[in-house]
Every structure is written in structure tokens, then in C-alpha cells.
Amino acid sequence: MKKYLHVLKKCPLFSDIEEEDLLRMLVCLGAKTEYFDKKYTVFQEGSPAKYIGIVLSGSVQIIQVDFDGNRSILGEVTASEVFAEAFACAEVSALPVSVIVNEPGEIMLINCSHILHTCSNNCGFHQQLIFNLMKDLALKTIFFHQRIEITSKRTTREKLMAYLHLQAKKANSLSFEIPFDRQELADFLEVERSGLSSEIGKLKKEGVIQAEKKRFTLLCGD
User: Fold this and answer.
1) Could you tell me which of 125, 100, 107 has the C-alpha nearest to residue 115?
2) Residues of the chain with pLDDT under 70
3) 189 CB-contact burial (10 Å; exposed 0-12 / middle 13-18 / buried 19+)
4) What domains appear along the chain, each with residue ranges and CATH number?
5) Which has the least CB within 10 A, 67, 105, 200, 201?
């Protein structure tokens, strides 16, 4: 656990919890860590939701596949970030998404019931943990609302520009790097890759953006 203590201290789930308390908490919660290779399915759609995941190294993607086999990327989770907490807290019997490893690394898994139900030790930091979990869920709700706003746009161009403006705002800069390659970005925006590539090419020619792989720069409004 000590190996990734610097990562865990950045995790929103453990905000305002002292280092010595954090180590004791992980033992109390029965936290376990596992290494996962690229493309490994950490959580499979349709399986029961029991665990909260914390990325210690590498990254994972939250994936949803519709009846026709079309894939949507709902989000990417990187080091110190949490995933599957909403489903675990709701105790859903069948996950509506899958969690797939994008970059190999270690993941910490915690049984959500150990968080929601205080233990017999009556640990003083447990209330802070629950507060942090509720705050994290609220922030994730805001994120998914923003994603709905983006994907509800009518055209590929509108979806792309809405996403790029949001990323620029988050980075507080007109130049920024996104977490997706072209296919992943198309899956996130729920558009065809060919149409997305075409729009990126048009926007570059029009002098609206610069784009090189995952790095984008906004040059003027659109």
C-alpha cells in the first residue's frame, strides 16, 4: 500500500484524511490491489456491482455497447481517480457498462459495503470517507450532465467544438491534450470516425483549430 501512498493522497475519496489514518483505513476496508494488462475487462457489463475501483497506475475506460454493437466511451479514468462508485453504492444487480484497461497498471478494489457500513472499530475517519464519496458522486453527476450536453448536439462539428471548449476550460488554456485517440474520441462523441476526421480537417483549414494527434489548440471561436 505504501508504494502508492502518494497516489492515494490525491484520490478524492481520501481527501482530508491523514496519512497514518489512510493506511489503517485501507486495512479496515479490506482493500486489495491487482495488476491488469491492456484490454483486460475489470468489470463486465451485466455483472453485479459490488466494488469501487481506484486507478493506482495506468488508466481504464468506461465502455457501453448498444444492441447493434456500437461502442460508446463514457469516460477515461487515470491514476488517483475512482470508478464504478455510483453503481456500487446503488447495489445494482447488473452493471450497464464495462470497465476496460486502456493502459496497463495496478488498480485498488474496495467492497463498497465496507464503506457504507461503519465497522465495529468505529473509526473516526469513516464519516469523512462517506462525505468524500458523496462529493465525488455529485461531481461525477455534473460530468455526465456535461457529456449529455455534448452528445445531444445535432452535428459532428457541434459535438466536437463543444467538447474542445470544455477541455480548454478545464485546462485553463487554449492549447491542451485530450485523453483520446481519434477512434476513442469518435466513440466518446458518438459519431463516425470518418466524419470526425473530416470535420477536424475542415476546422484546421478554416483556421479554427490546430490538431496533432491528441493535442488541440483553439485559434478562434466557432
Assistant:
1) 125
2) 1, 118-124, 221-222
3) buried
4) 2-150 (2.60.120.10), 153-218 (1.10.10.10)
5) 67
